[in-house]
Design brief:
alpha+beta, Alpha-Beta Plaits, 3-stranded antiparallel sheet, 20% helix, 35% strand, Dimeric_a/b-barrel, Transcription regulator AsnC/Lrp ligand binding domain-containing protein
Length: 46
């Protein structure tokens, strides 16, 4: 079973979409979700 990590990301104002797109292009990124609250993105990597 591969190891999973949840990464909590704060982005600059207006950059959440760009950061999400960049993360989705990475091989080990399993999931990227934009969220509200203290963080802007939660990503799951393996």
């Amino acid at each position: 079973m591969p190891t999973k990590a949840y990464i909590l990301i704060e982005t600059a104002v207006g950059k959440t979409h760009d950061v999400s797109d960049s993360l989705n292009k990475l091989e080990d990124v399993m999931n990227v979700d934009a969220v509200t609250g203290p963080y802007d993105i939660i990503s799951i990597v393996s």
